[in-house]
Amino acid sequence: MMPLHYPRYTKKDYQDMPEWKLDKLLAQYGLPSLGDLAYKREFAMGAFLWPDFVEVSHHSPKSSLFETVDGFSLIKKKI
Q: What region holds the DUF7722 domain (predicted)?
């Protein structure tokens, strides 16, 4: 059975994660675990981590959870 939530690992966690743990994690989500260790780490980070977004200007007195990138409204998330 596939887990209900994304794993809560950081980029550093994925970079240090042993191969057996990556294989198990990918299998839990029904994802392939093909390739070498470096490829598996990159694949897991691409699948489970949100990309870093450019911060909006700090000149605005309002703090927003959203940001516009290329015309799309996105939720800010730091990793």
A: 6-51
Quote the domain boundaries for residue 38.
Answer: 1-50+62-79
pLDDT digits 0-9 by tens, 23-42: 999 999 999 999 999 999 99
Q: Is 36 helix (H, G, I), strand (E, B) or coil?
A: coil
- 57 lies in a domain? no
Other CB atoms within 10 A of residue 45 CB: 18
Q: Note whether residue 55 is domain-resident.
A: no
Q: How many domains does the chain have?
A: 1
> What's the CA gap between 58 and 66, in Å, rounded?
13
Residue 56 covered by a domain: no
Residues with pLDDT less than 50, the chain: 54-61
- At 73, give phi and psi (nearest 5°): -90, 125
Claim: this prediction has a pTM higher than 0.85: no
